[in-house]
Amino acid sequence: MQVVYVMVANAGLVTGLQQEQLLELTLPYGGVDSIIMLPGKSYCFLIFKDVLHASRAYVSIHGKIKLTPNDSGPLYLAYAERVPEFSHSWNYYQKPPGLILLEEFVTEDEEESLLNCIDWKTTDSHLGQTLKHRRVKHYGYEFRYDINSVDKDCPLSEIIPSECNFLLDRLKENNANVLSSFPTQLTVNHYQPGQGIPPHVDTHSAFEDPILSLSLGSSIVMEFRHQIGQMIPVLLPRRSLLIMSEEARYAWSHGITPRKTDVIPTQSGDLTIQQRGERTSFTFRCIRKGECTCVYHDQCDSYKKKNSISKVHIIDDVLAAQLESLHVHEVYEEIANHFSHTRHKPWPNVVSFVQSLPFGSLLVDVGCGNGKYFGKKTGIFEIGCDHSVGLADVCRDRGFEVFNCNCLSLPLKSEIAEGCLSIAVLHHLATKERRLRAVEEMVRILLPGGKALIYVWAKEQERYKTQSSYLKQDRKNRKKVCDSELKHGQQHSDASKSKDTTSNKASSQFPSLPIHTNRTQFQHQDLLVPWKLKVAGKAELDKTTEASHLESSQEVPTFYRYYHVFQEGELECLCSSVKGAKPIQSYYDQGNWCIVLEKI
Amino acid sequence: MKLLTHNMLTSKCLKGVNVGYPLGIVAKDVKVLETEFNSEFVSRIIPKLDWDTLWNAADSIGHAGDLPRAVCDDYENDVEFLKKVHHVLVEVEVIEGELVCPESGRKFSINKGIPNMLLNEDEL
Lengths: 600, 124
Prior knowledge:
The complex is a heterodimer. Chain A is an alpha+beta fold. In chain A, 20% of the residues lie in helices and 28% in strands. Chain A has a 7-stranded mixed β-sheet, sandwiched between helices. Chain A has a 6-stranded antiparallel β-sheet with strand order 5-14-11-18-9-6. Chain B has one domain: N-terminal domain of TfIIb, CATH 2.20.25.10. In chain B, a hairpin with a 6-residue loop joins strand 2 and strand 3 (107-111). Chain B starts with a helix and ends in a 9-residue tail after the last strand. At the A-B interface, helix 9 and strand 21 of A face helix 1, helix 2 and strand 4 of B. Chain B: It comes from Zootermopsis nevadensis. Chain B: It is found in: Cytoplasm, Perinuclear region; Nucleus, Nucleoplasm. Chain B: GO terms for molecular function: protein heterodimerization activity.
């Protein structure tokens, strides 16, 4: 019998459809072989075993039944001659290369004893954490989610339970001699129905090949994804051992969608829905000594580190100075007036800080720009300094004291100020050492008890599900757009056409720095951010750090500013190395990481 | 550049300079700008100052007037004294000129009231 394709309109990934919902509706008619969901579409396809089952479903559903009561209209079905190539259709026999599944790896008794040997109520509370998706416990070494790796120098006191000792022998019995020695790390995950784990590749440099995962308590469907777009769902039966080796371990991500049911194939090959139970996985791994040497470079952190692909490792101070000169100082000189026009709304928290200074204080604003934070409090003396001659001029024109200098060497005496500001400055420094030096200089000029406030651009532009005003500005780039690697000369041939090279060509000297797409999430920490210069005309009243909604045109010079955007915790970590000061407050403010330091 | 600012500036950041304070002033254009006087503010600022430097700086540009060479004991209550200090600290501004490092002789120009203390790579 020929399979029959039925297109279902008003139901697709874009409408928020879950496979399970549609299957719950159509399965009673029987004969559903497969369901094909397409990304970004509001329709999907059902594949029926035969025309009998297809027509039963068609007659009952088409134009008559809504998928959910809140839908504005019913589902519309149509017969199709074929279905698209790209699909998530279930193929029970297809597995990523290197994936081995050993069913009934443990007995029911062994399953019970393994589940019982895990003490979730551990006294070391940080070792038995409750993450938002599932409970986790580590043995041997702790997996650190903040660095996405293992601290190889810090073994845990809790070693892998002796109940697991059967592992190597059991593998031999199954003719799966994939391990030469007993694993050195165990992670136990406990999933309630509805919990999952986002797709990920286990960090190459942290763990060897293979990785073994035992499923206890319940079966589940794990989804494997390859970079090129393929997704393969794999059913992990209860008490089975999953072995991820070679390509499956290194190049495919694995994840569990947080939901309460899974779509699985039945004996006869068509689809059904299975409720999830509480599942506990035991994932055994061998800590890798040294770096990974695999061939799967795109997912390999060792390879990327060695070849400086996704990061710019500027170790050289001279090179850092050159980068800053070209992509910070020169740019600000060129854009000073335009920049100043867009910088007149001060951030309230910074203003509060200034106003909290006692009467008779000296306030130094390092990197004061146009003096945005001056004049907010009477009875204090304000001195600004900035590298940019153009911006300092604006500051001076507004009636404030200012001088030019480099923030790495402040020409100021020590212990003179009650307050110090560094707003949107540190992120223009190209090495950690230089950023540290800048903070040390600020601490040096503070009086004991004096406070410094530092704001830097955050890599995380979305926080607590709220987008920063930087992101909200976006009109054209609603979806996340990846940064583009600079291709020599290609993108910026327009810019170089302007006769007097006022727009610096983004970086023939720094070709590995990615160019950011304005008003999108940051994909890298070190990058170049475009600034389209608006020439004489009405000033844009921009609330945040980017200007100009001009259509990209050959007339508009574009400048590229260097930024090192800070990850969560990074600013605190940097300041913790500064002697003589302690952090008294740290927070997130509209796309910035912020800290207040007090001089001891 | 006001003399209050000058009182805080140093060239110690230069390579090879040990103290770098006080900076000499060569003034080509000085302006006087009347600003609102607040006695409490001036009282609070005085302890931060290197008085000799203030007096010498004011004198070198011809604006010391009858500013005393030393701070009197009860200055908080001496309004006349405080007014003189106020004048010298914030009302006198060097618009064009130079600051000079006392050890190396290195000059930093002052343009439009803004001292330029940007260093070259080899000076850091």
